Amino acid sequence: MKVCFVRHGESEANALNVHQDSNGGLSERGIKQAEILASRLAKLPVDFVLSSSYERASHTANIINAVLQKEIEYSALLVERRHPSEIVGRNPSDPESMKIRKLIDENYGKDGWKFSDEETFYDLRKRALAALKYIAALNKNNVLVVTHGAFLRFLICTIIFGEDITPQIHRNFISHVHGSNTGLTVCEYSEGKWKLLTWNDLAHLE
Length: 206
Hints:
Layout: E1 2-7, H1 12-16, H2 28-41, E2 48-52, H3 55-68, E3 71-75, H4 95-106, H5 121-136, E4 142-147, H6 149-161, H7 167-174, E5 184-190, E6 193-201
Parallel strand pairs: 1-4, 2-3, 2-4
Antiparallel strand pairs: 1-5, 5-6
Helix pairs in contact: 2-3, 5-6
């Protein structure tokens, strides 16, 4: 099985550079990015489309699938990492946002610690492992998965390290990788093992 993971197109919140929750669709630029990516994916083998249920991801998936015309499914397993409600709508440089994120970062490896209603590392690890198990069980040859930036990086980190992923490994990993809107990441699943083939390919936007 080959799996093409895609980060959604630029969202309205991305364009404003604010933390977002489940709400909000694509910006005009994000719609154009998704249309360009759809043209590229039309040249690749895709049997099935699996998308996050969040609006910005499902909007991206629907634009792509208008071209591909494949069976499509939406899953809460693929939604973005949940931020604490207190920083939603705030710019990352907002003093209150910086204070809260610093506190979360300082306690990131403490099992059971939460600032408020955000997803912890342990929540994310459980969901990432469940998402990969679900994808592997689809029994399809070529799957397109539309998801989100932070969760995609967590998925790929989990593909590489499996259940051995730790808070420190994850922090080190995300400090060295970046995922762009509509970046294409290709993985292979065979005989119970995952392999990363391509990371954040943006050739369609050049």
